[in-house]
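User: Please predict structures.

Assistant: First:
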Amino acid sequence: MCNLTPMMQQYMEFKEKYRDSILFFRLGDFYEMFYDDAELASRELELTLTGRPCGKDVRAPMCGVPIHASAGYIAKLISKGYKVAICEQMEDVAEAKGLVRREVIRVITPGTVIETEMLDDKKNNYLMAIKKDKRSFGLAYVDVSTGEFLATMIDGENVESRLVDEVDKVNPSEIIIFLEEKDEEVYKRLSKMLNSFISYIDEEKVDLNVIRDITIDDKVKENHVSEVAVAALVSYLSGTQKITLPHIDVAKWYTRDHYLVLDCAARKNLELTETIRDGGKRGSLIWTLDRTQTSMGARKLRKWIERPLVDIMRISKRLDAVGNLKDNFIIRNEIMESLQKVYDIERLATKLAIGNVNCRDLISLKMSLKNLPFIKEQLEKLDCNLLRDINSGIDTLTDVVDIIESAIVEDPPITIKEGGIIKSGYDRRVDELRKATKEGKQWIAEFEAREKERTGIKNLKVGFNKVFGYYIEVTRSYYNMVPDTYIRKQTLANCERYITNDLKRIENMILGAQDKVIVLEYDLFVKVKENIASSVMRMKKVADNVATLDVLCALAEVAERMNYVKPNISDDGVLKIKEGRHPVVEKVMDDNSFVPNDTYLDTEDSRLAIITGPNMAGKSTYMRQVALIVLMAQMGSFVSASEANIGIADKIFTRVGASDNLALGQSTFMVEMHEVADIVKNATRHSLIILDEIGRGTSTYDGLSIAWAVVEHIADKSKIGARTLFATHYHELTELEDKINGVKNYCISVEKNGDDIVFLRKIVRGGADESYGVYVAKLSGVPDCIINRAQDILKNLEKEEMKRIQKKLKIPVIDGQIDMFSMNNSSETKLDREIVGEIKTMDVTTLTPLDALNLLYKLQQKVNEG
């Protein structure tokens, strides 16, 4: 470093402290980057890479961005998962003696972004810290842009799996992990599975004293591992943001059992906030339900979807509010129209709290708050507990509105240091300075006229030069008329030049008035900002209530448009849905052609439904719609049915679809088995389980055996006994209805018309006898030559299967018919007359694999019974 220039030595000192960040080093009107940072930034931002002499025989790679356009470049780097350290000039270059003093004023990371242009206004941006203990994990996470701060602890059985589920649900942009724990396998799994930036913190640098000035829920303090996670989060924020964050809420404690538990697979398979196909919003549940008018409401709706409730009273309050708004169409419309004019009060309050607000933000805040009195007037007309609570929680903040109204112009410029932001009449000094700027010449002319009249000096004139400024010039013939208040400044051959206190006052107002007014306006803006910043916590409370109202209005709007009904919520375990519909599929179809279906499950005689039927007939859609209806009801939404009783579920599990996980080296079947294992380990009798085609990723008999055993285990009340929908192509499982109490068979009805088949998409009692796989292939457009060949192969396989059964049980066959005489006289098979009578007319050559396997099963049972 000794060969470097002083400035580059300064740069290298900062870079050493912020090695994990791209250092934006302020040089005049640019942020410059050097060496590796420059090469990385030039590649990621498509900037021209140049060089800069930085010492004796030393030239550094360099690139830069203009300060006025830096936000876009920083946003791009953050979106790619980089950190950016902002190194600012802390003194005026013109006034600096020697090297300009610089400091890193902030480190921007994926989890600490507050800039609107870098954020999705409909999603929270969480920063999470995780601390591992022997048998538990402490979690703390915060959204710096809104101030929301939460903490919990994950412990008990399957703790690592539960941690992954919780982190996946929060979906943080950045995760802070203790350096000493970075090699833990669960963190490696998280880094492969999530699109989260991983940061590390040294445990020795985390002092619990950093949280002594923060309000923390007592439950957090009772769980040391969570308290350490909170301390790590606060330490990280202090080290990166370099300022206090007064808007951060109380660190609130919650537990997973406060909400309906949804694991990673359930959130993915049910497509709650994004689709499996392309990760987009269209086609997801939130796309169906989102009629919110504000960004705050959109974020809250996402939380409600991801965290449905389990408390019947809280659910019922939401449902009552949705119903009240649904029934009052005019009032709802008036409220929603007003909400359209409400900006993001929550994030505006944050910007205000940390001093990052501009005048346009204040105008947006004012315009938002001015809608609150009307919204409250409308709420007064409604009769509902939750809506009354919301109304009482909405403070109109008229004092804040009045301050902004009186001080800030209606259409201010973007910048706050170029003037033009303070209203006329707010401050006398500003008004005078502006008048001096605009009317300076007129003032001088008026002053000159007044002095002529006052003194009687007819040729008196006011002039100006750069040495003396403004002056009064009087010719020699009028010297005797010069007032005593004139102060002689200069004597010339034919005249004298004077100044007066009034002239100097006018001069001071005119000269540099523009610069003075800019400084004064900024000072006044700062005072206004500081004045209303004291109301930040009031604003946050208002924002929360407005967001809740927005969600309730949106759900009421959807309920009316889509003909949803209010569900009855109970704890009796009965799930009864009449004419249920898949909310997303129904909306996509948009032609009233969706076929509704009934559902009945309980915790006793009908707790597990085995659903058989062909592919493409609607089994998966049906099962997903049941799960979504339960979820919608427990989040407080009306549901897509004509009638619904929802027995509260504590958890929803799904195993739907086939997918591998190449990142973790898992095949489709391995993923399937992992998900099944998680379900049977974590489900309770109060859970809802959706299982589709268990065992299809392996051989037929392996798969059938696994599926059979899973059904037995789930149906067993001493083990789980959960309400379950189990779709399968293993028709052999329909035998379980007669063997296991609580198991019932259902199938998708099919209508045959010659060689054509129509899937009626209706769920009916009973089991299906065919899968129609070849026909489905035909419908999908597979060429006829393949279809015809597949049908031939299928017949041959069925014959071979029957021959194998014959050989195994030594069933005598003559010309394709079972030889009943030989069977009746066979002591080896030990078949009784009941079975013989059942199969005596059967044509063995036409048996399907299902018929054959069922026959094999019955014959084996009789042999075993002996």
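Second:
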Amino acid sequence: MANTTQFVYGFGGGAADGSKEMKSLLGGKGANLAEMSTIGLPVPPGFTVTTEACNYYSQRGHVWPDGLEAQVADGLKNIEATLGRQLGDPDRPLLVSVRSGAAQSMPGMMDTVLNLGLNDDVVEGLARESGNERFAYDAYRRFIDMFSAVVMDVHHDHFEHALEEMKMRKGVTEDLSLDAGDLRRLVETFKEIYREHTKSAFPTVPKEQLRHAINAVFGSWDSARAVKYRQINRITGLLGTAVNVQAMVYGNMGPSSGTGVCFTRNPSTGERLLYGEFLVNAQGEDVVAGIRTPEPIAEMADTFPGPYRELLDVTQTLEQHYQNMQDIEFTVQDQKLYILQTRNGKRTGKAALKTAVDMVAEGLTDRATAVMNLVEPGHLDQLLHPGFKDDTGYSDRVLASGLPASPGAAVGRVVFSADEAEAWKATGEKVLLVRIETSPEDVGGMDAAEGILTSRGGMTSHAAVVARGWGKPCVAGCGSIAIDYKAQQFTSPDGQTVKKGDWLSINGSSGEVILGAEELVPAELSDEFATFMDWADEFRTIGVRTNADAPDDASQAVSFGAEGIGLCRTEHMFFEGHRIQSVRKMILAASEEDRRAALAELLPYQKADFLGIFRAMPGMPITIRLLDPPLHEFLPHDASGMQEMADLMGVPLKTVQTKVADLDEFNPMLGHRGCRLGVTFPEITTMQARAIIEAAVELHMEGVDVLPEIMVPLIGTVEEFVNQKALICQTADAVFAEKGGTVDYLVGTMIEVPRAALTADDIAPEADFFSFGTNDLTQMCFGYSRDDAGKFLPSYVERKILPDDPFQVLDQRGVGQLVRIGTERGREAKPGLKVGICGEHGGEPSSVAFCYAVGMDYVSCSPFRVPIARLAAAQAELAAQA
């Protein structure tokens, strides 16, 4: 054994082999069970099988590594010795739970088996020992159901149908109304269902049951729902799931027992108040799955006053120990409290910010820890989600009310299945997913939906927990609506019918379900947001700019903390109002003189745009990219559009058709665009440079501080850049002479062609700055067209050919190396060269961390991602200091 890898770690009884620092090996659940055992909390004894064992099982054809079987047997003996019980012994029966637990929380995605160890003899012994036959057979029927579904893939619905039939025959509506005799008969029915679907008898040897259950949990790591959840949440780099085998404690032993889930703070608002639910005479799955509607946690003070007081003490201990809000699962067995799990609680963006600010104020943590651990970049994204414009104007259209499970407003067309939600989303539709209750199989549809409505389940149901974690509005437990999957509709309490495709709105903050599509408005940012972002800015050392093409965008970005513009796309200005006509005149021009005349019409428009942007960001650097797209993008390509253009231009239709045909390119992304336009039509560069410099000089003379940075796009050679820089500088000198004033300006380039990155040492001595355009750099590095890659990239990610869509997450191994080479060679040739990034990767957290590591001066992203980039930059700095 000494030479065998340790695959099993014990916990419980005040001691443990592991700790909270071992999440990668023990999973989050196993590491926290070990930690809670060590600090003296009431944790039932058990052991954890490591993620390394799961990885071996997954990669080696579903076999166990050498030594695991003996270590599992030893782990089981330790539980038996601690409790004086034995798995399979009718006289002193030990039952265990078998639960998954990855290093990152994946609520409901993998499998669990409870009450393992029961057979016909053990159940009789359990009934004798407990003096509660009903409890014993309730545990047995639950075990058969869960084992069948998890291990043998016999769908839970078969057992649920049999249970409902039993209740109908008895004339009752609640499971608790079934007596011991009913449950004994139900067990026999369940065994027949098992036999019918597996063609074999239900296994009766507990140790065989345990091995099967461990294998099932290992296998659930690769289940479709777990894979999809990891894709949606970009969870990568994990070995697999750990398996936690733990002695059962029973919340279903009668009125003196129960089970529950609680958060140490409100996960929707962040309020410092115990928040959660509990059920009397139930097991944990009843709460999490929403099978029964639970009671608010505060009412537990009356039902179980002693355990409730102890629970309050435990929650305070755990918050202080973990310096984070906790999500706790517990069971009360005969008035004795047991803690089954703790983890950092998933919460909304609003709750995350309030929790962070409050915990610092309460002295539970410091600013650095709050910035690093208590708020995720995705939380900030949630805060920018819209609400209803008028919260009071729809009262006459409220169809029903449920539990406000995840705040925010959502509007969409009703669908009743996850598959439909994904399919409709793919066509551009906004949808609301309406389900009786969600299950892990629904995660794809939940991700695709604007919001989620369920008729069953509580505030800690699967729908609620996942929705809050993603910042999606959710109304759960809306039991007054009757959902009919077959008819694809639901009926409100007053008889109104809502069919598939109808528009519906939900208020996840109030629980209201509203007929029709309500108008949405942007969210307002809280005082906690400003405080927290100030803390983030204290730690980050890399600048954050925005990509903005208009004054309104620039102002919005400033309100989110942008420190300038990293990318202003001038071509977007060409489409405004009547400007497109002047652009088309320029394109149709037969001579340079005619082109200059058309460009002269555009000059005042461009200048006005730059005046507005400079005024919106006084004293901040503004990087303006010269014209980038090929000219064909400014022309119509349909017959009616070409005829309309010919009429407006006063030219024959044939002229327009000929020009459209002439400008057609086999590969426009690699064709006549960017600096290539400026080289062949220098008057375009001259006009744009004049508009920028005139605007800057005029404002400077008014006393406005302006910092223009003119960026030449798509260069591949230093000669292209030198050519364009000369035109810009000549134009600037001419404007200075005309205006009688000057302004400081920079001329740099966008590094988006691989050759430019590789020859950065040639280009840098001529350039004032580099800005990496990683959208095109990714396109050219991979040879993928951004416009067409959507046809295959999802499949690539799903099949693990690529870890992520490289247009969303920077490919650090390939594209990132071009960025690193370009930065290093550029600065070797020109020390102190300013370097930034302006592709949308500038707002993606892992990409921001890479930019920090490379040593960039700033990142730039869309206005609504500026807060995310600010936090990601701070976290990158703090991680480097750790």
